[in-house]
Amino acid sequence: MVRRTKTEALETRNRLLDAAERLFQAKGVSSTTLADIATAAGATRGAVYHHFHDKADLFNAMMERVTMPLEASLADVGCGAPDTEDPLQAIRDAMLHALRQTANDERTRRVFEVATHKVEYVDEMQAVRDRHLRVRNECMAMTRVALQEAVRRQGVTLPVPLATAALGLHVMVDGLIQNWLLDPQAFDLVRHGRQTMDTYLSGLGLSLSPARARRPSAAVRAKPAAGAARPAP
Question: What is d(CA 123, CA 96) in angstroms, rounded to the nearest whole number?
């Protein structure tokens, strides 16, 4: 009986998160109430507060189910680690994987759209802003380390400070995703992303290995897209 109760509680929690994803995408976060989410999930407001402290807590739980593409990809390939075969290729592969995941995985795309276009950082949602900043800073740090190692190995001098180069690469990829979400039919996210990123890296004076530039690293090839094992509702 206890096991069934725990299973039912988990199912209720997931229904609430599924409903939140759909409503946040359709109505925006500020216009969606916890009562709306409870009704859409076929649950009570009491069930919502049993699982989540407030809307920000629910929102962050929704985000945790689908790790944001750049965050997951950069961590998985170990960009900049001493034993990384090619740090520049690793960071390129990581960012291309993030673009592919956004373009091809429905749940990732929906949550990313909510996180970038449907949330206002006001009142109780300040906790969401804090999480966004933490993830952004972690991604920036990994990008900076990878670029620094690539510069060291290739023996080049960047035309701009390292921090500026890392910032430019991060906001370029992030901006590509955000613009694509506004109109997915406007351009091919992966193809244009690859071309733009390669042009940027070349402009920094960095060289990609021709052989490795044609294929993703083993770490990225091995990782399935978040949510791929379970279709989005």
Answer: 35
